[in-house]
């Protein structure tokens, strides 16, 4: 089964799960249409590679679909966006 990513607004985070098992999360603060990513964490003990990238890409795709922008305070999210030019337009310009 492939992990799935869903927004969990009640917890202020995007979650990546395999069934009922939580594999990781990207915490955020919403400020209107802007999503400020503050922390990302994935379970390294699953033996799976790329969970963080899957999580961040799905979260950013969701923000894009909603017409929002992001502030990548989290170093993992910032680094991921830096490596993927096609997502740099989502970063809110100051």
UniProtKB/TrEMBL annotation:
Q: Which domain of life is it from?
A: Bacteria
Task: Name the residues that span the membrane.
Answer: none
- N-acetyltransferase domain segment(s): 6-92
Per the record, a Pfam family?
Acetyltransf_CG
Q: Which CDD domains match?
A: NAT_SF
**Which PROSITE patterns does this chain map to?**
GNAT_YJDJ
| Database matches in SUPFAM superfamilies | Acyl-CoA N-acyltransferases (Nat)
| InterPro entries found in the cross-reference section | Acyl_CoA_acyltransferase (IPR016181), Gcn5-rel_NAT (IPR045057), GNAT_YJDJ (IPR031165)
Q: What is the name of this protein?
A: N-acetyltransferase domain-containing protein
């Amino acid at each position: 089964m492939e992990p799935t990513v869903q927004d969990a607004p009640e917890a202020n985070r995007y979650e990546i799960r395999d069934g009922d098992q939580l594999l990781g999360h990207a915490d955020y603060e919403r400020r209107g249409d802007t999503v400020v990513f503050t922390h990302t964490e994935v379970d390294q003990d699953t033996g799976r590679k790329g969970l963080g990238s899957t999580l961040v890409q799905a979260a950013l795709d969701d923000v894009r679909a909603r017409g929002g922008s992001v502030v990548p305070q989290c170093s993992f999210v910032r680094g991921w966006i830096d490596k993927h030019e096609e997502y740099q337009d989502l970063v809110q310009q100051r």
